[in-house]
Amino acid sequence: MSMITSRHLLNIEDFTNDEIYAVLENAKTFKEVNERPIKKLPTLRGRTIVNLFLEPSTRTRGSFELAQKRLSADSLNFSASASATTKGESLIDTAQTFDAMKVDMVIVRHKYAGTPYILTQNMDAHIVNGGDGINEHPTQTLLDLFTIQEKLGRIEGLTVGIVGDIVHSRVAGSLAPALKRLGARVIFVAPPAYQPVVPEALGAEASYDFDAILPELDVVCLLRIQGERAQGLSVPSIREYASLYGLNAARANTLMRKDAIVLHPGPMNRGVEITPDVIADPRTYVLDQVNAGVAVRMAVMYMMLGGDADE
Amino acid sequence: MSKILLKGARVVDPAVKLDKIADVLVQRGRIACVCPAGDCADVCADTTVIDCSGKILVPGLVDLHVHLREPGFEYREDIASGTHAAAHGGFTAIGAMANTNPVIDTGATVKFALDKAAEVGCVRVYQYGALTKGLAGTQLAEMADMHRSGAVAFSDDGMGIQNPQLMRRAMEYVHIFDGLIIAHCEDEDLVDGGVVHEGLVATRLGVAGQASLSEALAVHRDIELARLTGTRLHIAHVSAAASIDAIRAAKAAGDIRLTAEVTPHHLFMNEDDLDLTYNTNLKMNPPLRSETDRAALLEALLDGTIDTIATDHAPHAPQEKELEFELANFGTTGLETALSAVITHLVLPGIMDWATLVDRMSHRPRAILGIEPVTIAKGSTADITIVDPEAEIVVTKDWLVGKGKNSAFLGKTLTGVASEVIVDGTLVLRGGEII
Amino acid sequence: MATNTSDVVKTTVMTSDDVKRSLMRISHEILEANGGSDNVALVGIVTHGNNVASAIADNIYAIEGTKVPVGTLDISLYRDDIATKLSPVLHRTDIPFDVSDKTIVLVDDVLFTGRTIRAAMDAVIDFGRPRAIQLAVLVDRGHRELPIRADFVGKNVPSARTERVRIRLEEVDGVTSVDILGNDVGTAQNANSALQQSDM
């Protein structure tokens, strides 16, 4: 028996609270492995994992790939530009093709919500959601939780602000409900066009006023602002967005708590949601998140693939 | 032509204040007599006698909103398969939308569709013409020509007319022949790429939503344009409570000729039916909205604010539905499940009586189109639907006879189904099977 | 668990004093074999070998007055049966010294099939290139599946394959003893996971 009850990780809801904490605990071991001169374990020798990245991704894909290599899994990268997977080309065919090749696990990234579920219906492999449209990105959430727990020692009872384009963010889509479930308070800080229709559905409160909320926050999680989305229709300009919601030194030094931490899933828009001096602030742990990402993904793959075969 | 004797059904027709057990004799396309059970004397050797005891006999049902897909998309549905689906669902007549390929936007294409329907269709097909050329929303189509060729209404259904001045001109133009406009009310700027209702479901599924206002605003606009122009206006597939408010107010004002329809899926499902399995058969436009909207639609149907139930039967091929939710085509089939859904959810629980069902699904749609009324009375055209109110069906792909298997009701068990359908005096459905 | 028939002690093969004496002898043997404690480091395999390793390190301190480095090793990620068995919780591997050119004495409580030791050797080698790897075990119960033997053995305990050998240590269990438990095959599968993990 694998120790994760769910066969797949499509949404963060697939993991119970205990399973989330178990992932975070085991990730510590993998983090230690990643500090060794020889960053290699034989753990998943002979297991085949496909990285099905149907939307461009550098960080998530690289993180999964490294995690697989360090666990000695055989991995195959299959990417297609978003334009090549337009209407008419069937995801089902892709799924069935890899199913016929007998792979053990598929990491899928796609620009459309719900695609990991489609894979589960068309293949036997374990499916891990590497980000589906604006829906969810559960492994990002696990690494965020790892970093929060590592830096602050707990998750329960914290107040976490997620700042940016929430409605178009799969990061927020997974992180907010997970934080809520683990006993944190979540506040979405964004202009109206970036707020989800029903913030409560993700377990969050909504605020338009970053300056009012910032002093309350234990964790400031900044999201990337997509330039093309920002201009004109949703907010008047990037400049104005940054003036209201960007984390700059003035805000960080006067309004942000000394013991608060700053997270960002990357890639960062320097000078928009975060300024370079805040990136350099010791309270900012963006690179720790990247580091944790490999360990957390190793833990997820180990725990989902280990023990899953018939005796 | 042989006679058909329909024996012992409960005959329900509010138009002639009828609700009793009776025998109905059909001859030469007409109802020859409606007489007390067992009293029909005019039976001879070539009479087909059908025992209808325990069943409900009503004037043939009409679905004002069907996409037959022919010409151009015959892989989804064609006139033959679509009319089969209609008969299977208990309809004797359907209104066919113009969004085919080529678009039905000329007299010639209207004629093609009507001729083809007369040739291969097993129920009556009333053809609608496009309001604008190619449904492009920029130039008026030749509506007078289409009218002369037999088009009974005009609609760009599938897309909303975005330009209010163009809609105004279209309404003014059909005044020449007192035409009917069927409005697909949708403000595309407000929809802004939304594929589900802008509410809980959008947040839960992580996909873009479309606000109810995208429909309601267009409903308001078209009502005001109808008021300005005096044109007959029918609002297609109303989905939002806010739209109902506008329609109710306009009807109360009494100064415009306004009707409206609701689909079975909007009546019996809401956004909560969409879950993380991303069932694309529940992706339709307008989308399934909130429970508040659903309740308002039902109330409006019962109080008559909404005139009729129309299915927006939108068949699609598997390759257009078995896709990522955001890529899948909009639409569900509806012809074959509408009657059963209405019986299951409204008639059997006592929310709606049979007479109201007949009014909403048979008399009012004919009145909206301005076509010959059908009643269960001597001399009337013999378009008849007979319902087995106790038969149970499980909606499966195999049970559906239409080409489109993309039913929002797949997997559901429904009670009450059409067992016989007679069109123009001819039996086209018997024992639930297409003849 | 307490009423499980498989937990009924059939034989106590080592008492607390026996264990202490054996560990003292092993400590002497390690020093003798390596000409003292220079360059020797102990790596205990969790979840019991680490306690045995601490006890040996204490003995060496008592004998020589030197503190040998002690590390702990969780071999879960090196198991050859991960596909079917999974350690739900990983223990910390902590080897706070450079293994290169050291004599590493792997320490475990029970030597059984040898698969744990195979995994442990792979794991140690991933930390560097030791000069030599030696093996110390409190109990050798036979039934090897790999060509592995211990350099230092507390006691050879002949056992049936289906029997279980339970090692209890004061630091963990409050009492020290080595027992052979009843060989009820049917219930052996419910056995204490620590025992199961003591060898694969």
Describe the overall structure.
The complex is a heterotrimer of chains A (311), B (435) and C (200). With 311 residues, chain A is an alpha/beta fold. Chain A folds into 2 domains: 12-136 and 290-305, 3-Layer(aba) Sandwich (Rossmann fold); 138-289, Rossmann fold (3-Layer(aba) Sandwich), CATH 3.40.50.1370. Chain A has 12 helices and 9 strands. The longest helix of chain A is centred in the last third of the chain and has 20 residues, at 286-305. Chain A is globular, with a radius of gyration of 19 Å. Chain B starts with a strand and ends with a strand. Chain B has helices spanning 79-88, 107-120, 143-148, 164-174, 188-191, 200-205, 213-229, 241-253, 264-268, 291-303, 318-321, 338-347, 354-369, and strands at residues 4-13, 18-27, 30-36, 48-51, 56-59, 61-66, 91-96, 124-129, 153-154, 180-183, 196-197, 209-210, 232-235, 258-262, 308-309, 384-394, 413-423, 426-430, 433-434. Chain B has 435 residues and is α/β, with parallel strands linked by helices. Chain B has 2 domains: 4-57 and 378-434, Urease, subunit C, domain 1; 69-369, Alpha-Beta Barrel (TIM Barrel). In chain B, the strands form 4 sheets. In chain B, strands 1, 2, 3, 4, 5, 16, 17, 18 and 19 form a 9-stranded mixed beta sheet that branches. With 200 residues, chain C is of the alpha/beta class. Helix content of chain C is 29%, strand content 24%. Chain C has helices at 16-33, 49-64, 115-125, 170-173, 185-188, 193-197, and strands spanning 9-14, 40-45, 70-73, 103-111, 132-140, 152-156, 164-168, 177-181. In chain C, the strands form 2 sheets. Chain C has a 5-stranded parallel beta sheet with strand order 3-2-4-5-6, with helices on both faces. In chain C, helix 3 (115-125) links the parallel strand 4 (103-111) and strand 5 (132-140). The longest helix of chain C has 18 residues, at 16-33. The radius of gyration of chain C is 16 Å and the shape is globular. Chain C starts with 8 loop residues before the first strand and ends with a helix. Classes of the chains: A alpha/beta (311), B alpha/beta (435), C alpha/beta (200). Chains in contact: A-B, A-C. At the A-B interface, helix 4 of A face helix 6 of B.
